[in-house]
Amino acid sequence: MFPHTTAYYLASSQATPQSTRGVLVAFGVILLGGMLGYFLVSRAMHKRRARSAADSERDPNHALVLGPAVITGKVAADTEGDAVTVAIEQTGREWKHKGNWYHAWKERGRTVTAKPFYVVRPSGERVRVEADNRVFLIDRLDGVEAKDRTTRVRTATLRAGEPVHIIGTLVRGLDPLKGGCYRDAAPALVLRPPRSGRMLISTEPLGARFAKRAKLHAGLALSAAITLLFTHGLLFLNHHVLYTVGKVVDASVVSSRTWRVWHKPRRSSGYYVYHYEITATDPNDSRRDNLYQEEVSYRFYDDVQRGSETRVPVITSGKLRQIGLEPSQNAAKLGIFILGTLVYAMTCMIILANTLPWYERRRIVDSGSGPLAPRRGRCQLVNFRSTVAELAGPHPTCRFAARSALERVAPFVTVETILPNSCPVAGQRAPRSTGMIHRRRAKVDKLTPSPRSRRGGRGLCRRWGEVGLVLGLGG
């Protein structure tokens, strides 16, 4: 009936029907629907693992038999030292952005130290555990030891008295505590790592971590379902209705008009953007509101002006109408939808990555605001005038220079008392390198009288230069 496709009638701001369908299928169905399915499957998988772990430790006093086993109890109180230690060495860096300090600690290496220990079951039975350095420890990473300003070690330690749940393999071995000496060690069941895999030692119930992940995936699945419902039930509802139940009618062009809008992008002199609109009506529709206005392309508008086109296809369903043989959407709207969908997907990935416990991460990165550690050489002036008088001496010129220097650094310094060549807060010299000492002394000397200007000026300059090192001038 109509010799032209829908793209012939659509304005430049409209996407073609093929592009609209492609975007909705790719991002609205495949991406959002795939995320919803992944979250639901992950939730079911973690729920099943949590139930299986809870069933395995339901009877903590079950009989010990050879093979895979789950041992529940507490680390024996007579254990010497730490049974298992995971040490994570981190290197820190700091940077300043827009006047604010930020820092990050990145993992550089991870070492595991394990030694044999005993687990006391609720029945009082002791089981020897021989873990190796491949053990998988689930515990709090609560130990921090600073080596220097940019290096630290975070540790997770299994100590005596902590409750444990251990998954391993029971084998026949020797227990030194059941005999008089090593040669007299009695045979006993010993828990060792499985042949293919790692021993798991957890200070929390085995199903706790799976239950947490199941809860997280349930929340993400709910958000994906809401996003999917908002996309197809509200944002693109008109498109779905016209695509499924819409009918194409042959409308007559009643009138047309054009207007222009001034557009001024950045780094451009600006230009006019022209818009074209037609008014159409359905001769078979007897309703009063059967007039329909929509922006169209310049080609169709020009043909209407020349009289070669007087009919236009309109797809309609109730009060929903749109020019063309197939429904389409605004290109800017589709672009915003694509961007929003990608941001949502990336947000979900970041949430999943950041909520992983430390023992499941390949590399631990801790970041935050502020510097790595307080800097040295900062002071707070308690008595400004008396401090200036004491440090500068009786000479008026040197006192004026000292007062001017202190006024410059007072907002940046934080010390209670001032002692030459020392920092009262840290108890160490303020500068951190010899080169920094010379640079700071050179800047401080510029604020003091020249050694040749007055008698004794050289000594005053040196004295005030030493004080300037404490205050951190020039840094």
Measured as a percent range, the helix fraction is 25-40%
The whole-number mean of residue pLDDT values reads 81
DSSP strand (E) fraction?
25-35%
Order of helices and strands: HHEEEEEEEEEEEHHEEEHEEHEHHHH
Integer-rounded radius of gyration:
38 Å
Enumerate how many helices there are, as a single number: 10
**SS-based class:** alpha+beta
Give the number of DSSP strands: 17
First-last Cα distance: 81 Å
The global form is elongated
The poorly predicted ranges are: 376-388, 408-475
- Strands of the biggest beta sheet: in what spatial order? 1-4-5-10-9
Main pleated sheet: 5 strands, mixed, barrel
Overview of the structural elements:
The protein is α+β, with helices and mostly antiparallel strands and 475 residues long. Among the domains are: 58-204, no CATH class; 384-471, no CATH class. Helix content is 35%, strand content 29%. The chain has ten helices and 17 strands. It has helices spanning 6-9, 17-56, 208-235, 237-245, 298-306, 331-354, 384-392, 396-409, 434-445, 457-471, and strands at 67-75, 84-97, 100-114, 117-120, 126-129, 136-138, 143-148, 151-158, 163-175, 186-192, 200-202, 247-263, 271-281, 291-296, 311-317, 320-323, 365-369. The strands form three sheets. Strands 1-4-5-10-9 form a five-stranded mixed beta barrel. Strands 7-8-2-3-17 form a five-stranded antiparallel beta sheet, with no helix packed on it. Strands 14-13-12-15-16 form a five-stranded antiparallel beta sheet, with helices on one face. Strand 15 (311-317) and strand 16 (320-323) form a beta hairpin. Helix 9 (434-445) packs across helix 10. It is elongated, with a radius of gyration of 38 Å.
